[in-house]
Automatic annotation (TrEMBL):
This is Heat shock protein HSP. Keywords: Stress response. Transmembrane segments: none annotated. Residues 27-143 form the SHSP domain. PANTHER family: HEAT-SHOCK PROTEIN 20 FAMILY MEMBER (PTHR11527). Coiled coil: none annotated.
Length: 143
């Protein structure tokens, strides 16, 4: 009995069930990663600090809203590409629009004091916490 390594085929004609489902799952879920905003959220006693990566999106195409305890970050980038031959004839013209949007639940924020800055593809937000309306924790004695 020989123990040969069989080359892995990832073409559409390879009907091995395990390879089919493995490849399908990988390609299906990889598509979702492209439109995700990579975000870091830090919390301390007085505020939330949010850093979101939005590379290639111009500042004027970014919208940030805070409503009912939900922070929403959205942006879009449009690109146009044309290719002409040596004679100036149009060979190819492509347009693409990329939109991203994420929402985060960050409650008890002073809405009027939220600050935002954008530099080199990084959106930084400071959301000060509002201690008004937040009841102190009540300790319940155990009998």
């Amino acid at each position: 009995m020989s123990h040969e390594i069989e080359p892995r085929r990832s073409d559409a004609y390879s009907m091995t069930p395990f390879n089919f489902f493995e490849d399908f799952g990988r390609s299906f879920f990889d598509g979702f990663k492209a439109n995700m905003i990579k975000t870091d959220i830090h919390e301390n006693d007085s505020e939330y600090l949010v850093e979101a990566e939005l590379p290639g999106i111009p500042k004027e195409n970014i919208q940030v809203t805070y409503e009912n305890g939900i922070l929403t970050i959205a942006g879009q980038h449009q690109s146009d590409t044309t290719t002409e031959d040596k004679k100036g004839k149009l060979v190819r013209s492509e347009r693409s629009l990329t939109s991203v949007r994420r929402q985060y639940l960050l409650e008890n924020v002073k809405e009027d004091d939220i600050k935002a800055s954008y530099s080199e593809g990084i959106l930084k937000l400071t959301l000060p916490k509002d201690d008004h309306g937040k009841e102190p924790k009540k300790t319940i004695p155990i009998e």
